[in-house]
Structure to design on (164 residues):
């Protein structure tokens, strides 16, 4: 399992640098982030894996792709008529890969060992992290929220062609 997730991570990172289109590079970055989340799962840290998917795979990748599309760094290509055989073949390959990944993960000895070892140790839950964030670290959380709001306003002002 480690080798599979490591190859996904490294493959996504290498493909990121080989892309000519910034949008395709952003999608390769997303693949790399998912591989890292899988590595966190192998380390028996589901909270870090969930945060990796939510924060990096979700927010950061969407932000990067949004900025790239908003600033129009990529060149538009003419859309050709889709060939239905390509679409059907892509769906079949995607479903086959997804089922194979589910079967591989569910039959993994590491996953079975995690179930056994998780009863012996106490894991950090998202509830505990939330309670800490909203009690002890509330000032830092609010500061980050204000920083993100300022960055969003600045991005809109930079993109806007005509200012008042």
């Amino acid at each position: 399992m480690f080798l599979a997730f490591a190859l996904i991570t490294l493959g996504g990172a290498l493909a990121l640098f080989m892309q000519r289109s910034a949008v395709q590079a952003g999608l390769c970055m997303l693949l790399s982030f998912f591989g890292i989340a899988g590595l966190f799962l192998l380390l028996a840290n589901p909270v870090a894996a969930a945060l990796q998917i939510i924060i990096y795979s979700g927010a950061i990748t969407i932000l990067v792709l949004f900025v790239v599309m908003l600033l129009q760094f990529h060149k538009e290509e003419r859309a050709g008529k889709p060939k239905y055989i390509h679409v059907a073949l892509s769906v079949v390959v995607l479903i086959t890969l997804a089922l194979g990944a589910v079967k591989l993960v569910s039959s993994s000895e590491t996953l079975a060992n995690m179930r056994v070892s998780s009863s012996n140790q106490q894991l950090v839950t998202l509830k505990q992290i939330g309670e800490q964030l909203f009690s002890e670290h509330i000032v830092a959380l609010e500061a980050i929220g204000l920083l993100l709001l300022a960055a969003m306003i600045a991005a809109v002002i930079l993109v806007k062609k005509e200012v008042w």
